[in-house]
Each structure stands twice: as structure tokens, then as C-alpha cells.
Amino acid sequence: MGAEKKELPPIPDRLPVSVVDAHTHLDACGAVTAADVTAMVDRAERAGVSRVITVADDLAAARWAAQASTWDPRVWAAVAIHPTRTKDFGEPEKSEVERLANESRVVAVGETGLDYYWDYSPHDAQQDAFRWHIDLAKRIGKPLMIHDRDAHDDVLRILEEEGAPEQVVFHCFSGDEHIARRCVDAGYVLSFAGTVSFRNARGLHEAARIVPADQYLVETDAPFLTPHPFRGRPNEPYCAAYTVRHLASLRGEAVHEVAESVRTTAERVFGLPTVTTG
Fold first, then answer.
1. Other CB atoms closer than 10 Å to residue 95's CB: what's the count?
2. What residues form the membrane-spanning segments (predicted)?
3. What's the alpha-carbon Rg for the chain, to the nearest Å?
């Protein structure tokens, strides 16, 4: 049973419209070299996930993500310091994150935000770092990619106090319908991971149903959060195709409609080139 859980899920049938995996961690999936990255994105493209954004959570990952985004034209990057790593977030780290965030294939500042589930970093350090990342995103004109775990009220409060960037993405949105409506009303974009397919995630299901077509994305957060029925197995970007289909079922929409919404919203939010073919 343990060996079975370690197997990657099968690659699903190709989506009718190509989509973007809005948040993945190719390095944590095991990619090291350019060949590794290309192999992962090739697998994703077989399922109709033709582009990915690989995301950093510390400086080493940020350097790698920025470099990996130059290895394959289907890969872009986002860089920031994860809230759980902000206990020692000083000027050298800020300078390096800002340098990397300005690179041309880095399309977002993230993932940043607040995480009150773990106790690796004090809340005040997390909030200070979050405010700094908000300011960075506004100064360089790039989207803000938010990590929000058990911290909805403080995340929304700080965004309001600081003044949100033009584009804000709630990575792996975890709120209920009430939080979703607050985010939607503020103009934020909600990114749904494999958790939206979990049978016990009823609040998240309701949230997914009410989000307008131009305010949601799909992501894997690979290698974590593999969609049902493969929960517990390793995740890769191609599994975003499973989440697209689950989301279509929840919303009572055709798969091609959801895929088209995901594609066009990702292109708008991250400034990606427009792709019109499946």
C-alpha cells in the first residue's frame, strides 16, 4: 500500500483547451536540471496543461525558479519568502528577492502572506514581511501571490491597510463562501488547488461555485495536494487537468468553458502571451 501511494497518478486525457498551472514547485517535485523541467512540462502538456508558474518559498528556491524559467518557454516563475520563513528576513534577503522579482520571466511576487497554522515564524514578523512584499509588488507592477493559512481576516485587513496591488491571487484558496465573496468584491483572484476536489471540503465547494468566471485560476501546488481520487500520492503539474474537471462539475459548467476561463484569466493576471489553440 505504501509503494502504491508513492506512484504518480496516471496522466489524464488532454483537456479541450490548454490551461496554466498557476502555482507549482518544480524543484520540490524533483526537478534539478533543464532536462528535468522539460520532462515535467512535457508530461503536463500531454494533459493540456501547457504552461506552468514555478514558485519559490525561500532564497535558494527563488534563485532556482528564476533560472528554471529561462530553460523552457512554457515555464515562468514567482519569487518571495514564505511566511513560515520570515523570522530572519533582513535587508540582504529583501535585496535578493527584489533583484530576482525584477527578472523578465518572473511574473509574480509570491508566495507571501500569513500562516498561522505553523509556529515557525512569529505573527509580527510574518506581517512585516507581508507588508514589504505588498509594497514590492506595487513598485514593480507585478501580481501578488498570497499564501493564507488560518489567517483570512488578517490577510484581508493588511491588504486593505497597505492598498492592494492591481492583481492579487489567493494561492490554494482555502476559505468558505463568505471569505470568497469578500475576496471577489475586492477584485482578487482565487486559485483552486486539488483541495477543491476533496469530498469533505464543503465550504470550499460553495466558494468555487460563486466565483465569477474571470476571477479564478487552477493550480497544483505540486508536489502537494494531489486531487481526488489520488490524494496522498505525489503531484505534478499535469494533475491540474483533474482539478479543472472537478471544478467544472462543481460549477455545473462544461470542461471547455472552465478551461477557457482558467487560460484567459492566467494570461491577464500574469501577463502571459495569448494562446488560442487547444
1. 10
2. none
3. 17
Q: In sequence order, which ranges of the chain are alpha helices (DSSP H)?
A: 2-5, 34-46, 59-68, 91-101, 123-140, 152-162, 177-185, 202-210, 240-251, 255-270
Query: pTM of the full predicted structure?
Result: 0.96
Name the strands in the sheet holding 144-149, side by side, starting at the edge strand that comes first in the sequence: 19-24, 49-55, 75-79, 106-115, 144-149, 168-170, 189-192, 216-218
Please tell me the distance from the alpha carbon of residue 201 to that of residue 208, in angstroms, as a whole number. Answer: 11
- The set of cell numbers assigned to 223 is 508536489
Residues of the chain by 3-state class (helix, strand, coil), percent to 5: 45, 15, 40
In the structure, how many helices (H) and strands (E) does the chain have?
10, 8
Contact 79, 107 (CB under 8 A): no
DSSP-derived 3-state class of residue 12: coil
Residue 150's region, left for phi above 0, alpha for psi from -120 to 50, else beta, is: left
At 92-142, the pLDDT tens digits run: 999 999 999 999 999 999 999 999 999 999 999 999 999 999 999 999 999
**Rounded Cα gap, residues 77 and 163, in angstroms:** 24
